Amino acid sequence: MAACALGTLVQQALKAAVDRPRPIWQDPVDSAPYAAFPSGHAMTATVVCGLLLWLLHRFDAGRALRRTAVALAVVSVAGVGLTRVWPGVHWPSDVVGGWLLGALLVAPAVLVYERGGAARRCHRF
Q1: Would you say 92 and 114 are in contact if contact means Cβ atoms under 8 Å apart?
Q2: pTM of the predicted model as reported, rounded to 2 decimal places
Q3: For residue 121, is pLDDT > 70?
Q4: Based on the number of CB atoms within 10 Å of its own CB, is 94 exposed (0-12), middle (13-18) or buried (19 or more)?
Q5: Which is the most buried residue in 1, 81, 104, 124, by most CB within 10 A?
Q6: Residues 10-51: pLDDT tens digits?
Q7: Domain ranges of the chain
Q8: Are 94 and 38 contacting, i.e. CB atoms less than 8 angstroms apart?
Q9: Residue 90 phi/psi, 5° resolution?
Q10: How far does Cα 89 stand from its chain's mean position?
């Protein structure tokens, strides 16, 4: 939960700092009012899927379930990215930036949990 909240703050701060205009198409499928970089949809999909995959690994879900989850996560995260570029609301680099920022939020969240006391407290129940 904290990683998702932090992600929203980072994403909004970067949008304000970079203030990159969105693509302008003659006949767009969709539009959006705020700055383009980074793609919040791509970043959120990466954070949520990344944390879910980590939880499946952490709680030793079966191999078939983990493989299925990885495939679904890849399709989901890639699909979200494509659905931001295809209608013309983001540049491809906005989506790639969102994916990278999402991964940069998941990695420290997992490390903090694993190295902190939260992991030990969780196993008491």
Answers
A1: no
A2: 0.79
A3: no
A4: buried
A5: 81
A6: 878 888 888 888 888 777 666 677 887 889 899 999 999 999
A7: 38-116
A8: yes
A9: -140, 150
A10: 17
Q: Which of 7-11, 35-39, 72-76 has the highest mean pLDDT?
A: 72-76
DSSP the chain: -HHHHHHHHHHHHHHHHH-PPPP--SS-S---SS--SS-HHHHHHHHHHHHHHHHHHHTT--HHHHHHHHHHHHHHHHHHHHHHHTTTSS-HHHHHHHHHHHHHHHHHHHHHHHHSTHHHHHTT-
The amino acid at 81: G
Distance, CA of 91 to CA of 39 (rounded, Å): 9
Rounded CA separation 20/94 (Å) = 9
Other Cβ atoms less than 10 A from the Cβ of 41: the count is 19
Amino acid of residue 55: L
